[in-house]
Each structure stands twice: as C-alpha cells, then as structure tokens.
Design brief:
Elements: H1 2-13, H2 16-33, H3 39-68, H4 74-100, H5 105-132
C-alpha cells in the first residue's frame, strides 16, 4: 500500500499535470492576495505566478536530477538537489514578481513555501532511495542518458 502511494505521488510530481495543478492553486492565491492592486494588475500577477509555478515545478524535476548526479556521494547529491532547486526557485519567483510590480510579494509566495520545501525534500529523497536501492526504480529508466551514471562506483559521473 505504501509503495503504491509513493509511486503514484512520484509520478504526479514528475508530470505536467501535477505542475499545472500546483500552478493553478498558486495563481488563484496570487489573484486573491493582490486584488487590491486592481483586477487587471492582479490578473497579470496571477497569470504570471501560475506560469512560473507550473514551469518551475516541471523544470525543477530536471534540475534536481541534474544536480543530484554532480557530487560523487548520493547523499550530497540529494542535499545539493534540494537546496539548489530551492535557491533557483525563489530567486526566480522574487525577481519576476519584483519586475512586474507585485505589491505583496512575500504574502503571494508564503503559501507555497512549505509545499515547495516539501517537494524538494521528498523528490530528492526519492532520488536518493532509488540510487541506494536499485530494485526501487521509477525515474532512472526514464532519465536522459546523460544523467544516468555509468557502470562503476556509486553515483559515478556520466
């Protein structure tokens, strides 16, 4: 039961549908929080936040896989994967919201903080588990050949 739930969660996190659903939620929140700026501006903020959230969620999977394989040790890869994706995500979100003039940047981003940290932690942990336990294989078979380690030591570079 637990394995099946983890596999479904992993596939949802790795899919465009999961990214679009997450983006829709955060875009709606951005619209509500920034409605005092006027509906046209709030609509631009919401659409921008939806597009950013969906793109970042889907793109962060590739980024996290890439960062995971950089260090030799899988544990360091998991740590780099989680921290690197969070730094890039929030640098991009804060920068774009600042450029479009979002009046409530911190409140706009607040509800996504815990799920984003959770996403980065869980996905990195799943990558680590998959590397340590070769029987539990979900994404490496679908990963780009450049990201799959060569035969050799643990977490060997491609």
């Amino acid at each position: 039961m637990r394995e099946r739930l983890l596999k479904r969660l992993y596939r949802l996190m790795d899919s465009p549908q999961g990214a679009v659903l997450g983006g829709l939620f955060y875009g709606t929140w951005a619209l509500i929080v920034n409605r005092h700026a006027g509906w046209p501006h709030a609509g631009v903020i919401a659409a921008t936040h939806w597009l950013l959230s969906a793109s970042i969620t889907y793109g962060s999977v590739t980024l996290m896989r890439t960062l995971f394989w950089l260090p030799r040790d899988p544990r360091n890869g998991a740590l780099l994967s989680a921290i690197g994706s969070l730094v890039l995500t929030y640098t991009l979100l804060i920068g774009v919201h600042y450029m479009i003039g979002t009046p409530q940047i911190l409140i706009t981003l607040a509800p996504g903080l815990v799920p984003t940290i959770g996403f980065a932690s869980v996905y990195s942990s799943l990558l680590l588990r998959e590397t340590i336990d070769p029987v539990w294989n979900l994404s490496l078979s679908r990963a780009t050949p450049a990201l799959v380690p060569l035969q050799g030591g643990r977490n060997a570079r491609a």
